[in-house]
Automatic annotation (TrEMBL):
Top-level taxonomy: Eukaryota, Fungi, Dikarya, Ascomycota, Pezizomycotina
Classification via PANTHER family: ANKYRIN REPEAT AND PROTEIN KINASE DOMAIN-CONTAINING PROTEIN, ANKYRIN REPEAT-CONTAINING PROTEIN-RELATED
Gene3D superfamilies in alphabetical order: Ankyrin repeat-containing domain
Family matches, as InterPro entries: Ankyrin_rpt, Ankyrin_rpt-contain_sf, NPHP3-like_N
Statement: the UniProt record of this protein carries the keyword Transit peptide: no
Official protein name in the record: Nephrocystin 3-like N-terminal domain-containing protein
Pfam family name, one: Ank_2
Residue ranges occupied by any Nephrocystin 3-like N-terminal domain in the UniProt entry: 18-134
Keyword annotations: ANK repeat, Repeat
Example of a GO cellular component annotation carried by this entry: cytoplasm
Chain positions of ANK repeats: 514-546, 574-606, 607-639, 670-702, 733-765
Length: 799
């Protein structure tokens, strides 16, 4: 990555750009996933070449109403589109540490970059990509230059330079001898050299009488070297184990102060630490943290050099040694196969001890009595681990519960005290808990399914409150905690009768209405299996809102409710019925059942629409016939003044409506006729019928537009003109049909109008011609208009 920084210095603004990404397996999700990589590269690319930002306006790539980061497939499409828009600009990508991301994600990503690169070669664009990775996993690339660092001429010189700078021995012949030995044993592995230099420096501090012997004893393999470092000194093994467990199993990387107090808490449990908390506000505390991280991890961990430093292994290969190479078992044979449960149990105890330490209680009491303005900051200054411990103690307990019984822990857990501390560190008021919150509610909302099962063994019953949701089950469902939902329903897993009952269950935090029951929520959100289970467990059909179920398009649940006697004539606040909902979602099968059970065909719902409005708009001929046979009003108007005839673009439906008395001349509140609407829909057959029935081809709407202005197809345009439509007619802003078609990018309509003699020199009230309107937005139309103008000018000149 240092090299990418060097290359970036040669970038030419708006002409050449270097972007980069470093996968970090120890970081947050965005730091170790290809989604995070695409987001980062896109941001750098769009900032470096602002003219490419226009791709974000393409609705085919990203939805207009997109409010959250789009999914991976959209990110890839955006990146591809951005690269294809480079033109003469050059782009270089450096993507480092592929081995620190999921292997399948990396293989898919490399294939994608190969496709993009091949397209750039065909289009003669300047696009280069440099990947770097450890030897495993092996990544195959179809075309490109493969460089193996250890085999490069300059690599040995780099290693020599590192040894020369960091080996603290002032005897040049000895340094030269040791350097040669190290280079031979290292086999080009830089990390091996860095670790062995530290070992030799330590030996040098003890008198330099066994340097060569120590170097000969050092294993050649990196994994064996890690084991040698960790086992040579048998002291402070408890500290080492805690260090490793915290780095491996913490829910997020710990900051230096958190790590310092987390290990102290664990050592206190073993009576290996002072009973008093170590202070963290001395002038040399940063140096203290650094020394403690190095000593406790025996040099295999470090503090990152970032704005918010955290503690991590010096390299991902340390994690590989401990887990893949089973270094943990070698060091601590007592750890069973499920070492993670034992590890989380240790971390749970560290958190629990820290949260309820007497010093913390005294500080809280003092704050409550003095009403401290910023209690979180004040507490963290004294107790840097308190935020993490209070937020994650239950997380570690739940993870430990896979193998270790947690009944005693839950029974004795001082919940009100924990809530008091938790709320101090919870930034969002809506996520804070009531002081009398039920433990089951908290476990459900936070997704701790193992602890839920344990708690239900202690205290059966799934009711309880304590926060933003009315019940534990609603909290689990709204937060998308699938395991918690299964646990609360008393199931051993999410699979019930061969079906995953939580399939498609996602986090929808704000989806719960006041007074809503779990059964009603499951029905309205479309979770059929959960709804069926709740019915079996005693929920009542009247809890569910049949209207909302049909409006949301959940036909199977609607049928289930109807089969259980749901009220087909029920209406919501705006008058919408289940029949409206089913028709709006084209669920005609459910709509037929509703009619058979007595649904009201004249009901006026949202927007004052009747079921006939909905069926006409959706173009379902047979259902329109059924509604008319059952007495639907063909002349009913909605809140915009539209009749069912206004809303259809189907000629057969229009004929039936007309036969039943629909008025062809009726206009909506904007004075648009049926012909306006049919032209806008591009329905040739319907336009023909309306014209044959005597529709006024030059009728104008409130804004002065005729049906010709609204035409969206060349065939409709030609038909209207043949029936006498005025091609020169202007709206209230002076826009002709050609102006409007040019604005709306209706290429074929523009061609049809030009063939029929539309005036391209006509100006609107702002003095703009059709060409003026098209040239910045729609270059293809602008070119056609320009060519027409040139041709007409030539003809005029000849004449």
């Amino acid at each position: 990555m240092a090299f990418s920084g060097f290359v970036r210095k040669t970038d030419i603004p708006l002409k050449a750009l270097t972007v980069s990404f470093f996968f970090n397996a120890r970081g947050d999700l965005l730091e170790k996933s290809v989604s995070g990589m695409y987001r980062s590269l896109l941001l750098q690319l769009l900032q470096g070449f602002p003219d490419i930002q226009i791709i974000l306006d393409d609705p085919d790539l990203i939805a207009r109403n997109q409010v959250i980061c789009p999914p991976l497939n959209v990110l890839k499409d955006l990146f591809r589109s951005a690269v294809s828009s480079l033109g003469n600009q050059a782009l270089t990508c450096f993507i480092d540490a592929l081995d620190e991301c999921d292997e399948q994600q990396i293989r898919d990503m490399v294939e994608f970059f190969e496709e993009v690169a091949e397209q750039c070669v065909e289009d003669n664009m300047k696009f280069q990509v440099c990947f770097s990775s450890r030897h495993y996993p092996y990544i195959d690339i179809k075309s490109g230059i493969r460089l193996t660092l250890e085999g490069q001429d300059g690599h040995s010189e780099d290693l020599k330079r590192y040894i020369s700078r960091h080996l603290r021995i002032k005897d040049p012949p000895l340094v030269e001898e040791l350097t040669a030995m190290m280079l031979e044993k290292a086999a080009g592995v830089f990390l091996w050299v860095a670790l062995v230099v530290d070992i030799l420096n330590e030996e040098n501090r003890h008198g330099r009488i066994a340097l060569r012997t120590r170097l000969r004893q050092v294993p050649n393999e990196l994994s064996a070297l890690f084991q040698d470092i960790l086992t040579r000194d048998k002291g402070h093994l408890e500290r080492l184990l805690l260090s490793i467990l915290w780095i491996l199993l913490a829910e997020r990387p710990l900051q230096p102060g958190e790590y310092y107090h987390a290990l102290w808490s664990g050592l206190l449990l073993r009576q290996k630490g002072d009973p008093e908390m170590p202070p963290v506000n001395s002038t040399d505390i940063s140096d203290c943290f650094n020394k403690f991280v190095i000593s406790s991890s025996k040099g295999l961990a470090e503090i990152t050099k970032s704005k918010k430093p955290t503690v991590q292994f010096i390299h991902e290969s340390v994690r590989d040694f401990l887990i893949k190479d089973k270094g943990l078992y070698t060091l601590w044979p007592t750890l069973a196969a499920d070492w993670k449960s034992q590890g989380h149990e240790e971390l749970k105890l560290c958190c629990n001890t820290y949260i309820f330490h007497e010093t913390v209680r005294e500080a809280l009491d003092k704050q409550n009595s003095t009403h401290t303005q910023d209690p979180e900051e004040s507490l963290l200054e004294q107790f840097p681990f308190l935020g993490y411990a209070s937020q994650c103690v239950l997380h570690h307990a739940d993870a430990a519960a896979h193998e270790i019984i947690q009944q005693e822990f839950l029974s004795e857990f001082p919940l009100p005290k924990w809530i008091t501390i938790f709320n101090v560190f919870e930034k969002h008021k809506i996520r804070k808990y009531d002081l009398d919150a039920n433990i089951l509610y908290i476990l459900a909302e936070r997704g701790y399914s193992n602890l839920i099962r344990t708690n239900l063994e202690i205290s059966p019953g799934i009711e309880g409150a304590g926060g933003r949701y009315p019940s534990p089950l609603l909290a689990a469902m709204a937060k998308g905690n699938k395991g918690s939902v299964a646990a609360l329903l008393g199931l051993p897993s999410r699979i019930y009768n061969g079906v995953d009952i939580t399939d498609k269950l996602k986090c929808r935090r704000d989806s719960v209405r006041k007074g809503q029951t779990p059964f009603a929520w499951a029905c309205e959100e479309g979770h059929l299996a959960i709804a069926q289970l709740l019915l079996q467990n005693g929920s009542r059909v009247i809890e569910a809102d049949l209207v909302r179920v049909t409006v949301n398009g959940h036909s199977e649940i609607a049928k289930m409710l109807l089969g259980k006697g749901a009220d087909v004539r029920a209406v919501n606040k705006d008058g919408t019925t289940a029949l409206h909902g089913a028709l709006s979602k084209c669920d005609f099968e459910t709509a037929k059942i509703l009619l058979d059970k007595g649904a009201d065909v004249t009901a006026v719902g949202r927007g004052r629409r009747t079921p006939l409005h909905e069926a006409s708009a959706k173009g379902h001929l047979e259902f329109v016939k059924i509604l008319l046979d059952k007495g639907a009003d063909v002349t009913a108007v909605d809140w915009l003044g539209s009749t069912p005839l206004h809303l259809t673009s189907d000629s057969d439906i229009a004929m039936i409506l007309l036969d039943k008395g629909a008025d062809i001349t009726v206009t909506d509140h904007d004075r648009r006729t049926i012909l306006h609407r049919a032209s806008s829909a591009g329905s040739v057959e319907l336009v023909k019928i309306l014209l044959e029935k005597g529709a006024d081809v030059n009728a104008v709407s409130k804004d002065g537009k005729t049906a010709l202005h609204h035409s969206t197809s060349a065939e409709v345009t030609t038909l209207l003109l043949e029936k006498g439509a005025d091609i020169t007619a202007t709206d209230t802003d002076g826009w002709t049909s050609l102006h409007f078609a040019s604005l709306m990018n209706r290429l074929e309509v523009v061609k049809a109008l030009l063939e029929k003699g539309a005036g391209i020199t006509a100006k609107n009230n702002s003095g703009r011609t059709s060409y003026d309107i098209a040239r910045w937005r729609h270059p293809q139309i602008a070119m056609i208009l320009l060519e027409k103008e040139i041709k007409d000018s030539s003809v005029r000149d000849v004449n």
